[in-house]
Design goal:
Length: 354
Amino acid sequence: MTGPAPATTTIGEVGGADDIDVSIVLPVYNEKGHLRAEIDRIRAAMDASEFSYELVVIDDGSNDGSGDALREIDGIRLIQFLTNRGSGSARKFGTRASRGRIVVWTDVDMSYPNDLIPELVREMAGYDQVVGARTTEEGTHKAFRVPAKWFIRKLASYLVQTPIPDLNSGMRAFRRDVALQYVSQLPPGFSCVTTITMTFLAHGYTVKYWPITYSERAGKSKFHWWSDTRRYLLQVIRMTLSFDPFRVFLPIGFLLLLLGIGKLGYDVLENDFKVAINTLLIFLAAFQVFVVGMLADLVGRATRATHEVQPAAGYTRDAAPTFPDRRTAPVETIAAHLDHDRASVPAAEVEPSR
């Protein structure tokens, strides 16, 4: 069994040595009614597995007593935010505080098959990230969500040139050493899960999609269909402009160029070779789009760092993770300090778990 860690850890610090196999990061916002049941389900599955693990739970400013309920649960590492900062912020801070070689993200709303987390981790053999791809849609606002998610998923697949069966699944496992390079780029809201998928793909890391069942969530959904969908779409486009801007600018430029050629042909045939001003403006717009695309590509190449990360200890690309058969010991509560130099999200100090 692994020994207990030091009494406190400061928010914003990267977790300690990779002495734990799996860190399970659980963002919580007003989930009091089913918190313990979900955590017990995860523990039962992990205790029966060959992996040592830790539970890093982030109370994202809950106002229903979830924080009090979490302080009654032994053996978790608890981060508490004073205000609700979004599930992305919770996952980012949880990832930074994690100590496992593999980090698992999932929710505690009873919608994901968290009893299959050990199997999800085993699927990491040969991959840098494994995404639980949902085979059904049980969320709210189905009439809007299904077509909107289909469109955004298809757009993202085109932009990264890779089929993506589930762009925003909340259940996934990934290598911590890879994620820590990009965690600062993740947005604070729901689109955090979209961003980490596209970031891995854009940098050439391998991503596997593992089919999972998806159940109707317990409690009230925090998804806002208009604002969150808009953020998803903008984040997909923003990331593409960062990593491969030509995937956006070239189609627009060619479309304008074809439109200009067509308009020029019309002017030649119908206006006795008199080229209209708007025809010239269309060609000028096409030229400007091409130039902006080239500049965006040059800026991206100049500012984008190249990372070469070796497979993490205990992990090989052609074999399953070979971790020793260990169990996690009860670990400390994270004392979240108001240190704005280290962390941009305010948090409160909490007492050690009882």
